[in-house]
Batch of 3 targets.
Target 1
Amino acid sequence: MNSIIGTYECKVDAKGRLLLPAPFKKQLAASLQDGFVLKRSVFQPCLELYPMKEWETMMQKINKLNRFVKKNNDFIRRFTAGVKVVDIDALGRLLVPKDLTSFAQINKDVVLSSAVNIIEIWDKDLYEKAIDDSIVDFADLAEEVMGNVNDDDNGIS
């Protein structure tokens, strides 16, 4: 799968349904029939929407962990806590289960933001705060994470 691109503001209705923005629906068209996995983020108070093929790739990595190592077993349990298989309905809506809505503190206004091969689903206020909090440190973070990567001869990395 190619990278998913875009950040969009949306609304969740009273039943927890979220209308997927048309650009995301178009980018995910090949994945619509396979379904998706929705889970809690490890590092942020948001949700992660995995196309099923991306989830299966992640599970191949997870399945290589030795379950007789307690830390691995604890990690697997926490990583998969609250995981749900979800579908996009004929109208392009995603039903966000109540337990995941509570975890991500989603009220009405949400932001869907691409994160390479998955989509993060944020409460709008929490997303704005996360972005604002990280602006100051982003230059240092970018240098630390990407500063030594230079795969091409064009000097752009």
Note: The longest strand covers residues 109-115.
Target 2
Amino acid sequence: MKILSSELVHLGFGKYVRSDQVTAVIPIEEERGPGRRTFVHVQGQNDPIIASRAEDTIVRDLVQEPREVTQARQQQEILQDLLVNLANVNSTVRRINRDEGSLDLDLCQQVRFVG
């Protein structure tokens, strides 16, 4: 689990904290209700911030991967699925793509992605 540095995490009702300054996330057990779901302890503050979001959603936001990493992983999965589906293209379509469309599906299938 990796905490993102210098990312703002939404606590609800317009409250945000820097992800690398959060020291603890504790669910509110007593007097829990609308606007009172989680205590968020922040470095340098004596009292916790009361968040309106549940602790699991705050933690998920604290440790989420950067958007670029998530998008790259999704793109890689799509390309791997495409390669699997290329195996099902019949020889006539392969020949037409190669000869008339300048797209050699056999060459495309030789590509391998490191995951």
Note: The chain has a mean pLDDT of 85.
Target 3
Amino acid sequence: MSDSTTAPASPVVLEAWFDLQCPDCFRALDDVHALREKYGDRLDVQLRHFPLAKHKHAYAAAQAAEEAVEQGKGWPYVAALLARTAELGERGEPVLIEIAGELGLDAEEFDTALIDGRHLLTVDADEAEGKAIKVTGTPTYVIDGERLDGGQSQDGLRGRIEEIADRLLGA
């Protein structure tokens, strides 16, 4: 997702590769929130899409998240969607539209965006880049060129991210 949490001129970028139907990515939001709180605008957290084949609605969810960015609520949409991964798995795309409406977004435009595929290239580009840097599961983080795989275990990842960010920020 091209929407970032801070100004584009932030000195340190943390890419968070997420599948928006992944329960582990929902748990990873706690780390993202803690990192934002600790570093503020010195850390630019960028969500990148890596929909996994095992989650049949993840690709549509990534497109919906991009539409949320267009409508100005990228991160709030992602957080609301990740909180409902089980429901997304059971009910599919209607959940994407419902969340948009609940957040006051133009749900009709979400439906149109999913039909016309206007965000396909963005999602495809993220997925291709993820494969190129050997992302295999989600969540996966990249900071200062180092890939940190949270797909197996998230234990210690926030600490490792903080070590790298502190070094880069001279803290």
Note: The chain has a mean pLDDT of 91.
